[in-house]
Structures are given as structure tokens and as C-alpha cells.
Amino acid sequence: MKLEDEIQQKKFKSIQQKLMLNLIYTTNWLTAKQDSLFKDSDVTVQQYNVLRILRGQYPNPCNIKLIKERMLDRMSDASRIVDKLFAKQLLLRKECPNDRRSVDIIITEKGLELLQSLDYIDELSKENIKSLNDDEINTLNNLLDKLRD
What we know:
By secondary structure, the protein is mainly alpha-helical. The protein contains eight helices and two strands; from the N terminus they run H-H-H-H-H-E-E-H-H-H. The chain folds into two domains: about 1-35; about 45-120, Orthogonal Bundle (Arc Repressor Mutant, subunit A). The protein has helices at about 5, 15-35, 45-55, 65-70, 80-85, 110-120, 120-125, 135-149; strands at about 90-95, 105. It has a two-stranded antiparallel ribbon with strand order 1-2. Helix 3 packs across helix 5. The longest helix is centred in the N-terminal third of the chain and has 23 residues, at about 15-35.
């Protein structure tokens, strides 16, 4: 559906304003769709993201700084998310032997099993972009990359 219909606004100050509003609206639309996929799980989208980062590092540990750098939502509080995942026994925290101020974080077997049980979410997420063909997806990816340059 067109942005004009979605937000009931017929005119925009410029095509740039429409693009910015369209990006914000679409981001929120996708976020709501993504959130709904997690409503029956024991983790949030941000916790899922941290667990995926840890699985990508596994069997090597990582630290909070690395997690923050790789998170999709840079506004999330990585330390708080790690604390919640630790409380759920989905990761381990160990004092780093080289730097006592740093903490090594590694996903647990329970965390790996949970991620495996949630792998279907990646397939369901494809439903959100089913109206685009592969060429359009590649073009959109390239344009979004270019926008962030």
C-alpha cells in the first residue's frame, strides 16, 4: 500500500521528506512484524540478536564492546540484555584472564538449542518481503547501503 494511503497524507514538502517518512514508517512496520514472530518465545528481538552474535563467535568468547558493535539496534542496552540472557542461562560470563575489567561472554548449549528452535523465524521473516523479487531485493539492498555511505 502506498505511504499516502497508510498515513492519510496526500502531499509532502518534497520527495526527500516522503522518502524519510517512508523509511521510518516501513522500519516501524517491519519491526512490528518481527516482534509478532517472537511473542510466543522466551526472548525479545534484541535478545535474539545478541544470541545470534554469540553463536557466530562460538566457540570463541566475545565482550560487550563487540556485541554493541554488531547489534542491529544500536540503541539497545547490551549490558542489560546480557544480564537477562545470563539469568535465563543462555550465556556464560567469565572474567577475562588478560584484563580483569573485561568480561568474556559465550553462548551456552541451552542458548544454542534455543536458537536452533527459533531458526524458523528467518524463514517466516521472508514473508515480509515476498512482494519483491530477487532483483528488486538486490537493488533495495544496494540503495540502502548507498544511503548509509
